[in-house]
Amino acid sequence: MSPATGAPGATPKYTKKDFESDQDVRWCPGCGDYAILSAVQKTMPDLGIPREDIVFISGIGCSSRFPYYMNTYGFHTIHGRAPALATGLKLARPDLKVFIVTGDASSLDDKYTVFGRVVDGMAVVEAIEQAPVNGEAPVTRIELSRVRVQR
Fold it and tell me: pTM value?
């Protein structure tokens, strides 16, 4: 039975709120991670995946608090281990949808890594990359107002 609809085998009808956890988000004011979290929470309902079939796996650092802020399953690993744990989980449970969240230090190429492909809007990605920062935090707030997931 679907937890969202109450009907056997029904496609879940989630909203952004369904993917928000009860944890206080603890990032610095203006951090770009807020925009990424919000965009993912807005996008997840469109995927039609039951929350119990979704897992977010992260490494270390600020961005890696992400699993705590999603109302799904999640695992906060140690430095550089998110890809290995995600691979192991996917091999053990191929039915799950596994997402990796990583920041600058624990990614595969020492840059912010997203497993996916930008189909259009590369100018936005480049603008975010060029945004002035104070330490690791953007000087001004960066907010994504629209994200489209293409399958």
Answer: 0.65
